[in-house]
Amino acid sequence: MKKTGKAAASRVSVLTETPNILEKRIESLRQTFPETFAEGKVDFERLRAMLGDTVDTRPERFTFAWAGKRSAIQILQMPTRATLIPAKHESLDFDSTRNLFIEGDNLEVLKLLYKSYFGRVKMIYIDPPYNTGKDFVYPDNYADPLDTYLKITGQRDAEGNLLTSNPEISGRYHSAWLSMMFPRLFLARQLLSDDGVIFVTIDDAEVANLRQLMNEVFGEENFVTSVAWQKKVSPANDAQWFSDDHDYVLVYAKSKQIWRPRRLKRTEQQKKYYKNPDDDSRGPWNSATYTCNKSKDERPNLYYPITNPNTGRRIWPRETAVWKYSKEEHAKHEQQNLIYWGKDGKASMPRLKIFLTKIGGVVPRSVWAYSEVGHTQEATGEFQEIMPEGGFDTPKPVRLVRRMLELSTNAGSEPQIVVDFFAGSCTTAEAVLEMNREDGGNRQFVMVQLPEPLEPDSRAARAGFKNLADVGKERIRRVIARLKKEKKSHLEVAKRAEDLGFRVFKLAESNYKTWKGVEDKTPEAYAAEMEAHVDPLVDGWKKENVIYEVAIKEGIGLTIKIEREKKYQDNEIWRVANPENEQSLLISLDDKIKTSTIRNLELGKDDMFVCRDIALDDTGAANLALQCNVKTI
Predict the structure, then answer these.
(1) Neighbouring residues of 402: CB distance < 8 A, sequence distance ≥ 6
(2) What does the mean pLDDT of the chain come to?
(3) pTM
(4) Which residue among 281, 350, 367, 382 is buried most deeply as judged by most CB within 10 Å?
(5) How is the chain split into domains, by residue range?
(6) Is the pLDDT of residue 374 over 80?
(7) 77-263+363-508: what fold?
């Protein structure tokens, strides 16, 4: 139907692909430095002049580059036309849960999550391929990423071996791995909240390169620490050089100025250091040194004598290590009986009494012993107990992920989103479910896993599992089944219902037709192709799948509720709402929106109504545009 004039101008199409990240960043630059744009383009000379001395133009300045970096940036900037379709038969408690498992290439999935999860994720943990020369590296296709994924998963015919390892004989061994990681880490940073944090486990093979890459993506100033995780109980006696007993956990904050790790709970062993030798009514205590690492010249006010009341001796601190406290503070300590002079009261230096009831948690350390966070043997045992069929060779211990959750999330009622886009066997999901069970927290997991094929003759394949994503989903189901059987006495007083479910979505081709052009460059051929796109929905489209694609690409998300609006009788209209971000829209996929429906819609200027373009004539489109924000498919 021909559209002209004002009525035609009132039609705005729904988004058929994800936002162009480059365009958004350029627009952000335009808002900050509008004077550096000329005729819609960035004038770099003006921008350099505005930035002044902050621009580094030295020819020998430090940079981090690798073969293929430009292509990696290009694939990051490429919007995806894919979508996510629900798989309710593989889910648990689909209608009420907010946990997600997404089966698909994590790069395409992250692009689809970008709009609805931007700045909302509290913690990300990933255990990417270590690039040992044997493990799988995602084969990104810079021309058509979705096409590559569809071939890998058998949804399209494929030629050649698409699913390969990254052999060390490759001339671009490290570069291929870095090109795979860069766009995924970049998108991960966009999802983090300002007080969010990312943990990445890695071994010696790529830790140096990963550190450089994360410095570039997150900013060197947001590096928090490199944890050494003791992953082995026993040494590898067959090692030619050293037994590799540890892996690394790189920790980066979205903003180090904002993020702080939570203190860890004090263990029973740590509590044993607190005793009460003088029967103090305030309970067990330990003592701390009374001096600091400042010198007399640096802190002259902290250099003064203290008298031991039991011996009358005047004691001076060392000139290179003066007292921690001023004279006034020391007087208060004496008044409150906080000074400890040793068992016999005759010690040569005072110490400060620290009571167990007054202290907070323990400061986290950068070495994690297996006794505290588990080891690889423990992880294998945990996995085999839940999944005796196998299906995954390198799980991480649940206690390791729980440590990360302890440091970055809490038991509050506000939702805290935890993402793992190299989900593997879904250890992260199990850790989230267990932590919520213990403290009544409201953590929500988002797991993303490629349906990586299993070896045909493996135990898991013989048990009926087709791919690694199937293994991960089944592990979550079995963990939930176990939790449902366990006693829940500590949750009986909780105000919030425990979320023991998850929604499954799968990466798929868009419900919108793609303009493919014509081989025969004739008016008739173009007319025929245009006629085929009068209704842009693909043949055989399903209503629910289209609704979810609209919700994803408009930024409403995947944890939506879809309800039929029964008050509209002349058309089938659905309300799509996400209680988490308070976004909603009305959508109808009928062939024709009737005049009575348009007249009775109770919508305001800020409300969105979505329908098919063929369902509106010019008059209907104009009338709707006067009421609300109209978008058409």
Answers:
(1) 373, 431, 434, 435
(2) 85
(3) 0.84
(4) 350
(5) 20-61, 77-263+363-508, 268-355, 522-632
(6) yes
(7) Rossmann fold (3.40.50)
